[in-house]
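Folding Query — how this chain folds
Tokens — whole-number codes for backbone shape
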Amino acid sequence: MAKRDYYEVLGVEKGSSKADIKKAYRQKALQYHPDRTNHCEESEEKFKEASEAYEVLHDEQKRQLYDAYGHVGLQGSGFQGFSGMDDIFSSFSDVFEDFFGGGFGTRGGSRARAGSDLRYDLTITLEEAAIGIEREVTVAKVAPCSECKGTGSVTGELITYASCNGTGVVTRQQGFFVMQTPCSHCGGRGKSVEKVCPECRGHGRVQVKRKLKVKVPPGVDDGMHLVLRGEGEAGHQGGPSGDLYVIISVQPHDIFTRRGNDLVNEIPLSFIQAALGTKLTVPTLDGEEEIEVPAGVQYGDELRLNRKGMPDVHRSYRTGDLLIRLNVKTPTKLSKKQKKLLEEFQKS
């Protein structure tokens, strides 16, 4: 079954702000929340659909991919949506607390949550983009504390209180609604640290700098991105780490401009060469190559050197061409003899 347009799912316009998208999701979440619809299967599916739409549209990078390529673009980035209700509540626990005042609909006061995604801007040359490179980068991020293995406790042991049974919340039924409040013993964490780790001060995470190797494939273009799974911020309470998005910036070249997978090189040509034809030695990414310019070429004409352009980043067996664009120059300073010769040529 084909997925519906995410903007249509939330009932918002394509250019809507994050605040409008969050407001629209809040309305859908209230309408289709399982606790409010007595876990109706149809409503749960709509709740999942709205949550998936919000997951994409509130994230700037995912939204850019979706706007450009639709659902196919998200599949290419590895986005799989949510596996179930617990996955949704885990990812948006802070959102639900904001929506429902810290209780309605959340399934644990401090459940495991995925870490945030990170961005790294990598600048490369056109030559590097053509052959592909491996570059070592340094990324500052939050990682699990190595001293306590992310538990926040010196001993690695956590205390579970009977009042919340490790969920971090105390649940009370009040007629139609299920109200949840943070556990007063563990402060909503679910489990309490017996002896706080001095390295991370009980948070289980520390700020670090990590060196990572980024493999840039041949043919990448300016603005493309690479995704390093699990190299983003560490998750909360043992949740999975986020991803690292490496945004590629290709420096402008002194000679070549890019047109898709083709390269364009503009070559100056005198009007005599254009009229009579000539041979030229032109630069390519692989070195110099001799070309023959036929007689009678005009300004803006292009000569094509097959497979001398950029490789296709998606299909390695394809390579673009090099286009030699002829820029016929008209002389501006002529001697009397040159002018006379041209006048005689005009009369003839």
Q: What stands out?
A: The chain has three domains: 1-107, 114-150+204-252, 256-347. The longest strand covers residues 133-144. Residues 100-110 have pLDDT under 50 and may be disordered. The first helix runs from residue 6 to 10.
